[in-house]
Each structure stands twice: as C-alpha cells, then as structure tokens.
Amino acid sequence: MSIAMIIVAAGRGTRAGGEEPKQWQMLAGQPVLRHTIASCYKALASANAECARVVVVLHPDDMARGLALTGGAVTLVAGGNTRDASVRNALEALADQNISKVLIHDGARPLLPAEVLTGVLHALDGHPAAAPALPVTDALWTGAEDLVSGTRDRTGLYRAQTPQGFRFDAILAAHRAHEGPAADDVEIVRMAGMDVAITLGHEDNLKITYPADFARAEAILRARKDAAMDVRLGNGYDVHAFTEGDHVVLCGVKIPHSKALLGHSDADVGMHALTDAIYGALAQGDIGRHFPPSDPQWKGAASWIFLDHAAKLARKMGYRISNADVTLICERPKVGPHAPEMMAELARIMEIEPDRVSVKATTSERLGFTGREEGIASIATVTLIAE
Prior knowledge:
Catalytic activity: 2-C-methyl-D-erythritol 4-phosphate + CTP + H(+) = 4-CDP-2-C-methyl-D-erythritol + diphosphate; 4-CDP-2-C-methyl-D-erythritol 2-phosphate = 2-C-methyl-D-erythritol 2,4-cyclic diphosphate + CMP
Family: Belongs to the IspF family. In the N-terminal section; belongs to the IspD/TarI cytidylyltransferase family. IspD subfamily.
CATH class of the largest domain: Alpha Beta
Region (2-C-methyl-D-erythritol 2,4-cyclodiphosphate synthase): 232-387
Distance between the termini: 31 Å
Structural class: alpha/beta
EC number: 2.7.7.60, 4.6.1.12
CATH superfamily of the largest domain: Spore Coat Polysaccharide Biosynthesis Protein SpsA, Chain A
Oligomer: single chain
Number of domains: 2
Largest sheet: 8 strands, mixed
Helix content: 25-40%
Radius of gyration: 25 Å
Protein name: Bifunctional enzyme IspD/IspF
C-alpha cells in the first residue's frame, strides 16, 4: 500500500491580512507552510504510514520560494486558477506513481494533530473516502442588514476539516470528470456517487483565515510546548571489518592506513552509527530501512548520502539536531589528529554548528576484535529538539 500526501498552498486569499498570502506569513518565527509540512510529516510518522510522496501545490510565482523553503525534500507542483484545479494538477503528477491512498490537506492548517490523520487512514480501510469534521454545537442564525432574520436546525451539521483521504484511483477519476467549482474534494467525490466516512476532527486543526487566527495558532503552539517539551535521544552502533586496502573513511575523512574497511557502501563506521542514531531518535528504523543493502544502487555509496537524508528527515518532522557525539573504537589508525576535520565535515552535512558535534576515539585495551585490529566499531548519540 502506497500513500501520498498533497498540501494545497497555491491560494492568494486576502482575509488573513498582511502583505503576502497567509501560507507565507510568519507563525512563531516560521512561515505557516513550514509548520504545516512539519506537522504532516510528524502525523504520518505517528501513524506509521509509509508516505511515498509529499506534494506541495504552490502558486506558479512561488515555486522558487517553495524550493528554498523545502530544500527539494518534497515534490512541488504549480497550482491552477481554482483549488480544484490545483488539486487535480497534484493528482496528475502522482498518476503513474502506484499510489493507493492520497491525503489532501490545506496549507493553511499548520497544527494537524496526529490522531486526526490516523483516523482518516483507518477509515479508508473500509470506505473509498473519509474526512475529519466537528459537529456544529453553536446555534445557527440567518441575518440581513446586521439583524437576525431566522434560525436553522444544527442537527446533522459538521464543520469540515482536512486532511481528506481518498482511494487514489477514485479521486483522480472524480477530478477528471468534474466540471465547475467545488467547496472541497469531498464535494467532488460525492458528485461522482461515492460515500464519504466522517472521522473525528480536532479544535486545534484550525484553518488560518482571519488575522486573529494567527494569535490563536501561536497560543496553541505555546501550550503544546509548555505541556511537553519534545526532546528525543537516539543512539547508533556499527561495526566494519578490515580488508585489504590503503585507507579508511571515518566520519567523512579519508585516512591513510594499511587496511580498508569492508562494507556494502563506503563502510564509514562512524557516519553509519550517527545516521542510525538520528533515525532512532525519530523512531524511523535504521539505514537498512531507508537504503536496503539488497538494492545494488547503494553498493559503494558515499555515507554522507545516508546522513544527509537522516538530517533532512529530522528537519521535515520538525526537529533540530541539538548535538551529536561519535566515539570510534579502534587501536589504529589514530583518530585524534583528524578529529577536528571529522567534526567539521559532520556538521557541514547535518547543517549545524561545528561546536555541536563531538568526535573522539578510544581503544579496547587490546581486547576483542577491535583489540586484535580485525575491525573498527563506533557508537553515536544524538539529541533532537522539536522546533
């Protein structure tokens, strides 16, 4: 089963005020859209959902800005003149990707709770479409000229939210057949004759529409931070045996030696341990999960590719790397003279300050396989802090 997520952020709404569209306005020091993307990744991870693609739909004028914001970590698609046209552009971009389920989310909903997304995914196991909503609890009036002109029964009425989820083939066919405007994707699939399951929404899953919504969203973010500061620790351990060669690569630095390290990739034992520490802190498995050794494309690959992926995944999930500590366990080669260069290289790949990275070495007092100089081991610890 393959899942994709579409984040629609191509609008030019003016009700939120400000000099630019709401998705680009600042919320707690970051653009609204960045919060939205991070909350989607965290919700997907919490649901243990293997997301094949995340697609962000932007106004054609914002594509370069979107690339700078996301660093190429998501697929960017240019939107159309209407919301349904923007969604269709994204669906067409996924048409040949073997997607089975798709979630469509508003770019201006930056506080997606994980349980909302999980509820939609579970409902899709038994329905072609599902969407979160909250029952209307307030009295409903009609009005004219600032006077109440009548009341309406609120029984059976809901406030719709996103992400709205669909079987991919069904929503694509519905969009291709649809003509004219639509309030959302639920309306489009219902016009195609499909049932839509209602799942439980959440009050925090607000859509920023008016200027006051920014203050409300910041208050929710502060309350979440105060309730539980999200600090994660991860550790990694790796071992590689010696083989014939004339150098080793440790923490990204080539060191002359009488032997080389044996491995499917470049066998950088220090970088592998650090990469696994980041994946571990994120509860995202290990290198083998993301870069299977059975896949020949990774044979001989440079280990910075793995570390770069782990660091970017941490940022996408809303975390920053606070510090990293790597210990190399070997008799030889001597690591100390190369440690500053190693720390600088690891910091460069992870895009953090060099003083947040430590590389050190120890021996095993001639005990065990490292003591017999049969290979090198490494342990690593990393701290991640939610942004």
